[in-house]
Specification:
The chain has 155 residues and is mainly α. It is built from nine helices and no strands.
Length: 155
């Protein structure tokens, strides 16, 4: 039976990556906190980040990933991710701020959010769109979602 040394444990903890989230600032903060006590080379940090990205994000950022400078790829990918997601978040917030529930059909608001989502650089899952829809509704309207969730299908 093979024994793990203390250095093996530290190394495996160093490469343990939190699941990717669309809150990129918090994700990088978490990553860098994990890596704070080590001297992990930038290339290894870059490779770890690329492996952690969901495939749909990597494919949308492919042109950026393929053209990163050799010198400091980790910092370059971090800045590219932050810039892309901040632009997306700001655009979504601006667009979603224009989507208000006026007391009419919930499906009309869902359709508006779905349309905004389709043109987004990083579209949200159906669950996230429904979560955003719920956040736009008053407390008194939210029980309607629980009573008839099929009315909010994005199909």
């Amino acid at each position: 039976m093979e024994q793990c040394s203390a250095s093996d444990s530290v190394f495996s903890d160093t490469l343990r990556v939190p699941p990717f989230t669309y809150n990129v600032e918090a994700w990088y903060l978490h990553l860098e906190a994990v890596w704070a006590s080590t001297d992990l080379p930038h290339l290894q940090r870059y490779q770890t980040v690329v492996r952690a990205l969901p495939s749909e994000i990597a494919s949308r950022l492919y042109s950026v990933l393929a053209s990163l400078p050799e010198a400091d790829r980790y910092t370059a990918i971090k800045l590219a991710n932050l810039e892309a997601f901040m632009w997306f978040r700001d655009a979504c917030f601006d667009a979603q701020d224009s989507a208000r529930y006026d007391g009419g059909r919930l499906s009309a608001l869902l359709a508006r959010l779905s349309d905004l989502n389709r043109v987004a650089v990083f579209p949200l899952s159906e669950e996230m769109v429904c979560h955003k829809l719920t956040s736009l509704l008053s407390q008194s309207v939210r029980p309607q979602l629980v009573a008839a969730p099929q009315a909010l299908s994005m199909e």
